[in-house]
Amino acid sequence: MIKLPESMERIWSMRAKGMREIEIAESLGISRQAVNKALKEAKAKLFEAFFSLAETFSWEIVRVNAEKGFMVARGRCGGKTIRIYAFYLPEKGIRAFFGNEIPEFILQHALEFGIIKKLDKKELINALER
Do the Cβ atoms of 67 and 43 come closer than 8 Å? Predict the structure, then answer.
């Protein structure tokens, strides 16, 4: 399971929730350059993790957003093509869901990370597909 190092994950989460780099640096008592470097490394690791997951399961990637920590892909299941939505969850790693089978905790995560503005599956799917 891919999991970002704790300090990198904290910085990535703060940024994904909308904080500016300078605010993160001040909050953590580190330089803006250190924040920028951690964010670049976090995004690279998340891209790599999402691409590895897609390769492992032979999914076709539609979209990856490492800044917010999600991937949209297409895959085959039971003879038909379905949508796969994968999210990086702090302290848990990547979790993937198929079609409209998106649980409530993912809606909460998407709201907290600014992907959606209200707890609504349709809004989440629309935001992921943009």
Answer: yes
